[in-house]
Give the backbone structure.
Amino acid sequence: MTTDAEIVYFNGTYLAKHEVRLSPDDRGFLFADGVYEVVRSYGGTLFALDEHLRRLADGLAALRITGAEPAKLANVSRELLRRNGLGGDALVYLQVTRGAAPRRHAFPDPAVPPTVYAAPMPVRSRGDAATGVAAITTADLRWTRCDIKSLALLPNVLAHQQAIEAGAQEAILVRDGVALEGTATSFFAVIDGVVRTAPCSNYILPSITRGLTLELCRTHDIPAAERPILQQELRDATELFLAGTTVEIMPVIRLDGAPVGRGTPGPVTRRLHQLFKARIC
Amino acid sequence: MTTDAEIVYFNGTYLAKHEVRLSPDDRGFLFADGVYEVVRSYGGTLFALDEHLRRLADGLAALRITGAEPAKLANVSRELLRRNGLGGDALVYLQVTRGAAPRRHAFPDPAVPPTVYAAPMPVRSRGDAATGVAAITTADLRWTRCDIKSLALLPNVLAHQQAIEAGAQEAILVRDGVALEGTATSFFAVIDGVVRTAPCSNYILPSITRGLTLELCRTHDIPAAERPILQQELRDATELFLAGTTVEIMPVIRLDGAPVGRGTPGPVTRRLHQLFKARIC
């Protein structure tokens, strides 16, 4: 799939990506004034699509962007897979902005139609679950509404780049001594035999794979708790892992250069990965 | 000047705005991965252009975006005024992003050419210096690198909209009990006869008009100090004002619904406004 020839969706129309005429007045370009989702398809079937569209609707409501009709994006997503011949594993990217209007901070008044964009993306995992990935910890510079899946991703970009340059695949963001989440993933630790992850708050995204992971723990009697992971507890963790639409369940085998546990994917993470794989089939 | 017919600059070419073909893969659209400037022209002459371009270069360096050659934007800015017949007062908007590349958080490797966009904008002041404006205070939700003039402006958008809906023209952002700056302006208070504004740090933008205001104070023996303005000190302020490229020096006569001082522009603000106007002539 090349970047420009693929069929995308833009404001009601399917067209080749290079035909999209995004306005430089778009508030996504000028102000990061919008939200997005990444949905995964397995064997041509979109996974947890309703949950993704519900979160998109929640984000639009939080930002008071109207007129996008997120429910319609279910059919758009399926149609994009069909038109691009993507019967296997793929991602669908969805983005809605407050639309194009002369530049000023306040919402356009009267409102303008939102910009609705959707495009297929290849699955580029950040690693292999069989061997795991390395991660670093870094200061969380983000704003305090990380529960909104907004386009204001510059701090995530910078932290992720820092990880890459350190030879790692993800950066775990630490705020006030708490290891919250990755730049594009949720973060879990196994400490004293309990699977731990930060509770939902304005400091983390309510990740769909995070919720599924907790549900798998409950269903299969794996001890789990939504309780903040203190940075100082990380050295006591026997296992660490990431969770997300793209990485699924991904063991972290090195953190800040030091091995996690035995330096290989641990038993709890491997079990959750198997349960996750069974769930998506 | 209509929105679509005006001549803009896009990646080396002058063209009508509606002819711009911004890619939906642009990292400005996807990640807020870029910086911007707004430069003002008075009577066709761009004011403090070198300072704006230096700050743009600083922002590009902070984000490690290369290849944009900000110095060339001096001529681009002048050419935009000329081609659009803007011999009077106007604004020139400049934006540089990390360019268009398949979506992933890390910097494209190898790097792609940056997107360089410039466009004229009409001067839309947030008020009249003769009568002043109203402002509100609100929690600063932004990230912790506010010294970078980045595109991640969603928190600024939301705070400014909150001000508008409260019948005010600007929102003063308060973090940890300190009144830092507006959503698109610097913030000053006159307390015990001293002009005060937050010291430069990662929590505020190093505003060019802020610097000029402090310089005018020094030159004209107006007592001034770069010292944090505590929220609890705001009630003791005899005058408040905003400073910025668009608002210039703008008295704040009401804060959170209550009059500031006598509820009219105060003598120190009026004097600084006069000195500012004399400086730009």
